Amino acid sequence: MKDNYVIIMAGGVGTRFWPFSRSTNPKQFHDVLGVGKTMIQQTVERFEGICPKENIYIVTSEEYYNITKEQLPYLSDDQILLEPSRRNTAPCIGYACYKIASKNPNANVVVAPADHIILKEDEFRARVNIALHFSAKNDVLVTLGIKPTRPDTGYGYIQFTESEGDIKRVRTFTEKPNLEWAIKFVETGEFVWNAGIFIWNVKTIKQSFEAFLPEMAEAFEEIKGDFYTNREADALKRAYPQCKNISIDNGVMEKAENVFVVLSDIGWSDLGTWKSLYDISEKDENQNVLDGQTLLYDTRNCIIKTPQDRLVVVNGLDGFIVAEYDNVLMICRKEDEQKVKEFVSTAGNIAPKFV
């Protein structure tokens, strides 16, 4: 396992999960599922047996250093990579991969978000190990693909070619199709959801950056001598303005020809919205998801997440989100959850401290 590394992306704000997810304390640092561990803690533990703890790297924003250190105290400062600005996933992944490559040119890397739910953790480890064995011996970029359970328009889709085994060559990527196309994709059986979990060796990903994002590759190559030194933070501030604001999917995966997908059934959810939390959570006899001290009357199909020290009485609601955290209470129809970003924007203008 000494050549296996894990990069966990933990710099996002998670606006759609407001009021729990705030710019000062985003959802990856919360115990969203009420299991006694935050999402980032669960994510790190998920990789036990895949790589040593000293090979786990967290990429996050400068303002989240303290909370990361508090929740993952066994990580050294060299394992907590602080971005000077948010520029999407390609710079984040490039930074971490170039840093790891400067230490171990034989590194084989898994990249994963800090805020996803994976219910079948043993199967997840098995799928990741399949990908790691493949990427260790081949010049390939690998992603995990989730068999779709519905024509969801909120996910990216990967089309794969038919072949023997669990590893398929990728034919196309489609980002968030409309409902008509999503239905067709699911019906063909040739598409899986893009889980945003990637596996490759550092030699291959560096070649991909050089081919498709040459300015970014040059920026990180120029500062490789500064990694693992007290010059790293200043070097990053020089390099990041040269990096395009682009996702790894748009910048590399959709352009490369050596992309493969490992078909996976791992109980996955990106937990991007309140509805996604509702969908995966246990429900009472009236299809309510409850987290907090509640008394319900004639209430069904709701998700209610409130502080444990506050009694909440709800009467006559059907299909609502009721969420309270740190002096902000939001009551919203589940079907209108896309308006949460609008709520955050307005709240930011009226009372910034609550955003």
TrEMBL record:
Domain Nucleotidyl transferase residue range list: 6-286
Keyword set, alphabetical order: Nucleotidyltransferase, Transferase
Organism: Emticicia soli
GO molecular function ontology, one term from the record: nucleotidyltransferase activity
Keyword Zinc-finger belongs to the record: no
Pfam families: ManC_GMP_beta-helix, NTP_transferase
UniProt domain MannoseP isomerase/GMP-like beta-helix: residue ranges: 296-345
Protein name listed in UniProt: Mannose-1-phosphate guanylyltransferase
Lineage: Bacteria, Pseudomonadati, Bacteroidota, Cytophagia, Cytophagales
Alphabetical list of InterPro entries matching this protein: GMPP_N, ManC/GMP-like_b-helix, Mannose-6P_isomerase_type2, NTP_transferase_dom, Nucleotide-diphossugar_trans
